[in-house]
Write a structure and sequence with these properties.
By secondary structure, the protein is an all-alpha fold. The protein has helices spanning 2-10, 13-44. It has one domain (2-44). Helix 1 packs antiparallel against helix 2 (13-44). The longest helix is centred in the middle third of the chain and has 32 residues, at 13-44.
């Protein structure tokens, strides 16, 4: 989060937006992984 704040404070929005995108895609990937495991366990049991 400090990196994002640093880039925004300097007026460089592109690296800040890139970092936010990376964080969002990481959460999305984790969520999709847990949903996949739950789906596999639900259908397999």
């Amino acid at each position: 989060m400090r990196i994002i704040e640093h880039h925004v404070a300097e007026g460089q929005l592109s690296p800040a937006i890139q970092q936010i995108g990376i964080i969002l895609f990481a959460f999305l990937g984790a969520h999709m992984g847990t949903e996949l495991v739950q789906w596999m366990c639900r259908d397999g049991g």
